[in-house]
From TrEMBL:
It comes from Kibdelosporangium aridum. SUPFAM superfamilies: Cysteine proteinases (SSF54001). The keyword Iron does not apply. GO terms for molecular function: cysteine-type peptidase activity. Keywords: Hydrolase, Protease. Belongs to the peptidase C1 family. GO terms for biological process: proteolysis. This is Papain family cysteine protease.
Amino acid sequence: MSRPHEPEIAAIRDSLAAFGDPWQVGETRLSRLPERLRRVRLGVPAPEQTDIDARAGQAERMAAEALEAVGQQVVAATAPASTLPKSFDLREVSGRDFVTSVKDQGSCGSSVSFGTLAALETTAAYTRGAPGLNLDLSEAHLFHSHARARGYTSDSGSWPDDLFDDAATKGVTFEDYFPYQDNGSGAANPDWPNRLAKAAGVTDLTGNPAAIKQHIFGYGAVATCFVVYADFFHYRGGVYKHTTDRLAGGHCAALIGWDDDSQCWIAKNSWGTTWGEDGFFRIAYGECFIEDYPSPRPTVFGCTAVHLRAWLPAQRALRLFATANDANGWAYLENLGWTHLAGGPHSTTNKLAMLTHARASGHPVTPFINGNELSTVQVAD
């Protein structure tokens, strides 16, 4: 007995052959769903045909600009080199992985919250040089609380400019304070203002592939919107290029790198780890309007820093530094990197004494971070 999607897959295979088979097609957990339920797992308002028509020729221009960016001088001090390389992947930066785990948005049009927080989580770790930070922020808080307050629903989807604004002005709590349920149930812990992350330096990168690369290389992942065609649900791996003009809607993902040899972006999706390349995908430069979604709104965003206000898990204090009279103290924490000690000389001296004792005795410390500073520290048992 043939499977219901075999004719669809066969048609995609025939089309891919004409392109040299750039990606692998097959049945996936998304493609097994009826078309209506596939669309539910998107989350960006579908583009208007007039906006699509207005971007005729954009794909070639975006691809050319992406390739021309190699060798550009890099401005960000946090970047690992002074010029843009031909390829880069935040999962492999000198042996360190700054990308948090792939999640699953389920049957909810909440992809913008997942793309936005994937960018924040990665930026928080990357700008601190701390891959062990491993933030897990609450998509439920950003979508079911903040986005809902703006009138967004699972059916309507949302836009990244609004959600980045909420992440910057209101902040987003951690997953354990508002666990994600795709049906929108649950509520934030009332103490969430004391356990949150806030985006800083929110930057609009729409329509500028070189700026997107600069941002990824200097600060971390970027959230972007793109058009989803019907064949995308069947993606199993490779460099995606659409083979059909049958539009499914709009979606949001996080760009985490690029590869000029393959002429593609590397992206983190929110459809679980069994879809695509373990939950990630590669997509050709200029494809699906991924650098400039067909909308009057800006649709590609990143941030240059993430400020935390939260107790973090116990970890070792690896190094300490202070200027004369302890007026300027710093601690290098195992999963947080170099962190300034808050307070005046007396407070700094006390924290340094506690951290020195913890190091000498082999005890981890539990830090409370406020902004970018170590506000309070406790020696863990």
